[in-house]
Design goal:
It comes from Roseomonas elaeocarpi. The chain is α/β, with parallel strands linked by helices. The chain is 40% helix and 11% strand. The longest helix is centred in the C-terminal third of the chain and has 19 residues.
Amino acid sequence: MSAGTVRPGLQRRGAAGAAPRLLVFGGAQARRMAALMRDLPAPAGQFDVLHLDHAAPEQPDAALATGGAPVLLWEQALDASVGAAATAARDRLRASLPMGTPVVRFPTLGFPSLWPFEGQDPRLNRAGDAAQYAGGIRYPFTDRIAQAVAAAPGAAALPDDALYDLYLERFTPELPRLDRRLAADRARLEWRDRHSDVAVAPFILANFRNRRLFANSRQPSGPLLGEVLRGLLAASADALGLDARAAQNGIDLLTRHRQDDAALEAPINPLVAGHFRLRYGREGERTTQAGTSWTFRDYIVGYMRWRAYAC
């Protein structure tokens, strides 16, 4: 699906001398995309970059005093999961833009098959955790099998090693079902590509085994954000008045070790890593969440115990 017709000359100042403006609409992924664009050396300072959060529907009306400056909209494509309020905010934003404003849509990205048993956990909102832990949650990455093991008779009395072994024993029979979850992820990614102007499903499916493309089930890591940004720049370079090659050259360096990934990393079950033949997520590998370094065993045992920790 191609992007809308792009007006030439976005690099020119508006009638009131205001800088050209790039609007990036959406949730956390859109916010990170806007941050990348502000930091990318090639276009830095050439235009304003403004993130509009779909969860704050009052923002578009207040933020669009463009002073006559031309605008381009990068829009995180929404689906039914975001709710009616976000869709209404998107529609109001579109209606408020000058006629003919180009819109380039990019997909919402997620990959829950690597964390197949996430679910609700009533302990997430325990009183006292909000002030003590980053994000206000002691263990933000949940696991339904771990919850069931922790609640089993006698589990609280087991040593940590025995509790972890029991968890792996309960998890192992679920491994054959993981391929169905991967197929569902594939179908979801491909559907979202069809409703976007930047297609990334082929890149994800070709590379997820060799590179960690997702920090957790809902957040792409730096390399995947960079791939989306390449597609957005390819569709928008003329409108933004950019040297596309210079802009593209800065993406790898900017996204390879993006620091905002560090607070988001969910440890991966080594059984899942082995099943999908991942080159990461093996037993003993460490990830960082809220400033704390974890192996998967450390995290899942602490989660089952709901153990306090320093952060």
